[in-house]
Design brief:
about 270 residues; alpha+beta; 10-stranded antiparallel β-sheet; about 40% strand; elongated
Length: about 270
Amino acid sequence: MADGAYDSYREAMGDVYGGWWLAWPLTQRIRVKDVRALHREGSVAAGTLGDRGIDVKTAFMGAHADLAYDAAGTVAVRFKAAGAAAQGFTSVPAAEAGARVEFHAGKSALIVYTGLEQTGLDDVARLAQELVRRLWLGRWDAALFAVTDVISARSGTVLTAEQAGASAELHIQSPAGPGPLQLLDLAAGVAFGASSRVGLNWTGTDLTPCYRGVRIRRTWLRRVKEEYGTPQPGRGLAAGPVPPVLLDEAGDETWSVVERVGPEKRP
């Protein structure tokens, strides 16, 4: 079930945040300045930049629109107001507000996130210079990547279908505001009721659904090796201080030295 649920979630989020890594499990917390290592189809924690003596500053990059994804209309949601009975509900009593979710396609997903904000490094060039300096001294593994941007969410709810015809009921305990219930009311303050053929039903707060990062660009590293030699254990690329020309290149032509690494860019 876990693999199928992740596949459905990944495909759905790819429609909105293609090129970003997805935190999985959904409870995983990712932070700007984390260091990650590629592993199978994802990435795993490998410490932080601070662990390696790299001090770079973060900044608020802006808010994102709330996300209410219903797989191109293949997910139907019917709401029930508190104090009213509604046909088809089996586990939400008349006194409570609720929603019934029905999936009309297999491997489908309903994803609702609110309070989305992006935080990131305010100076990637500075990070690139620090990575070059440590790479030269043998203190940075070029296979690692540093997290430069994270999208956080105040709250969210995710449901996936194992197959067409799946359904789930939700108790809505705290609607977002007055007026008719809507998809964004499912992001927080919900509890799951009866369900059938559902792969994943999950809700939480203070989340980091998406992140991205940079690593040393392979073509740049290849060129540097050809010019300065192959790294030696414990020595780095060469004896002596890092050539100023490499630091200048990292500062002035940053994206020729580092590259974005996403789930679609494997070694």
